[in-house]
Write a structure and sequence with these properties.
By secondary structure, the protein is mainly alpha-helical. The protein is built from three helices and no strands.
Amino acid sequence: MNSLQPISIFLEIVVAALGVMIAVYRGKRYGWFIGLTFAIYVFYDLVDLLALNVSPDLMYFIFFVATLSILWAVWNIFLEA
């Protein structure tokens, strides 16, 4: 196990929480998508860290959802700027 992996997971949790805070306190919908993206990253990294037996097809799908989610968020941030 790489010693940076638990630190990375913690930081991903922080970013997910900040995304939710953007949505709740600032009223920005893209915050939910930032939160979703990083929550998926946490799940993805925990599966790896804990060596859980999760279908590779499921992992590909959820990573794709994370990619679409952050794309939507960044596009909306761009449109707002």
